[in-house]
Amino acid sequence: MSDASRTLRVIDRLRIEIDRDLCVGFGDCVVESPKSFELDDEGIAVFTTPEAVDRATLLEACAACPVDAITVFEDDVAIVP
């Protein structure tokens, strides 16, 4: 898997980005949606298969990040955080 696909995904009209510089590895996204996220060898969040979960679950997992390292855009407008 390429580095870009581990930190950027486009799913339907959502563009989801993980900022590796902001992520500190709390893992709240993983707790909320383990099918969507995991922590890599550096303890930083990366995508697994976010397209495998429903929209609400994915958005809740993204919003759970306490340091706002995950940003979700819909039609180029930030909706999370």
Reconstruct the topology from this structure.
Elements: H1 3-7, E1 8-11, E2 14-18, H2 28-32, E3 37-39, E4 45-47, H3 55-63, E5 70-74, E6 77-80
Antiparallel strand pairs: 1-2, 2-5, 3-4, 5-6
What are its keywords?
two-stranded antiparallel ribbon, 23% helix, 81 residues, Alpha-Beta Plaits, globular
Please give a structural write-up.
The chain is of the alpha+beta class. The chain has a single domain, classed as Alpha-Beta Plaits. Helices cover 23% and strands 30% of the residues. The strands form two sheets. The protein has a four-stranded antiparallel sheet with strand order 1-2-5-6. The mean pLDDT is 95.
The CATH architecture can be given as: 2-Layer Sandwich
* The number of domains: 1
The global form is globular
Largest sheet: 4 strands, antiparallel
**Which fold name fills CATH's third level, the topology?**
Alpha-Beta Plaits
How many strand elements? 6
Order of helices and strands: HEEHEEHEE
CATH class: Alpha Beta
The residue-averaged pLDDT reads 95
Instruction: Give the radius of gyration.
Output: 11 Å
What ranges have pLDDT less than 50 throughout 5 or more consecutive residues?
none
Which structural class do the helices and strands define? Answer: alpha+beta
Distance between the termini: 26 Å
- Proportion in helices: 10-25%
Strand content: 25-35%
Neighbour order of strands in the largest sheet? 1-2-5-6
Number of helices: 3
